[in-house]
Amino acid sequence: MTPEGEMMIACKTEYSGSPNVDKYAVEYILSHCAKQAVQNGNTVVDKKLLNLALTVPEPPEGQKWSFELATALHKKGSLSDKQYGYLIAYIDLGHNKD
Description:
Layout: H1 19-39, H2 67-76, H3 81-92
Helix pairs in contact: 1-3, 2-3
């Protein structure tokens, strides 16, 4: 909601691979957008999005997060569905770049 009272959509997103993982990728994107909306002076209706800790695990030593690395570690069981979903969104947003 803008300071003028106009209802706006902060962002739209969709993932369609695995529902157990996709829900976390969507959660990450929506929370990220909500936090940016607040920084821009807007009010967010769904307050729970503002309280999510958007943390991702550190990549293995000497590596950077990539879709391939995250997928391989998830398949091995080294990443939970939530960690993997958050990483997919993190990578999609370009947060894995220096």
